[in-house]
């Protein structure tokens, strides 16, 4: 009878250990399931980061093109501005030349008229 009680006691102990192992196993499976979900989330983040990196690269290329175009426009505008700054001086020079030519022509006409009046 003692053997039977010992066997029963051992069976109960084994059953308790099996139940504890079973609970540990269930707990481990739950942790594994949570880890799987976390891993999936990390993979999704990695995909998102790759997509974002691609977009940033494309935006940087577009920005470089826009910057290059702006720099060309600034250079052209600077050149045009310099031409505009010189234009009043050129107009003044042209006006002065015309006035001088007109004055010389008027003096020549006066002298020519005076001489023509003297000889005729």
What does this structure look like?
The chain is mostly helical and 120 residues long. The protein has one domain (1-84). Helices cover 98% and strands 0% of the residues. It has 1 helix and no strands. The protein has one helix at 2-119.
Task: Itemize the secondary structure elements and their pairings.
Blueprint: H1 2-119
- The number of helical runs is 1
Order of helices and strands: H
Strand content: under 5%
| Strand elements, count | 0
Shape category: rod-shaped
Distance between the termini: 173 Å
Radius of gyration from the alpha-carbon trace, in angstroms:
51 Å
The helix fraction, in percent, is: over 70%
Largest sheet properties: none
* Class per helix and strand makeup: mainly alpha
Q: Give the low-confidence spans.
A: none
So what's the oligomer here?
Answer: single chain
Q: How many domains comprise the coordinates?
A: 1
Mean pLDDT: 89
């Amino acid at each position: 009878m003692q053997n039977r009680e010992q066997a029963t006691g051992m069976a109960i102990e084994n059953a308790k250990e099996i139940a504890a192992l079973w609970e540990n196993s269930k707990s481990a499976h739950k942790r594994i399931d949570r880890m799987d979900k976390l891993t999936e989330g990390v993979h999704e983040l990695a995909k998102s980061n790759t997509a974002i990196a691609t977009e940033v690269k494309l935006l940087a290329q577009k920005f470089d093109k826009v910057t290059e175009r702006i720099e060309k426009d600034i250079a052209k505008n600077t050149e045009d501005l310099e031409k505009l700054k010189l234009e009043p001086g050129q107009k003044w020079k042209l006006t002065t030349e015309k006035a001088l030519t007109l004055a010389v022509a008027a003096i020549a006409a006066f002298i020519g008229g005076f001489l023509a009046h003297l000889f005729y």
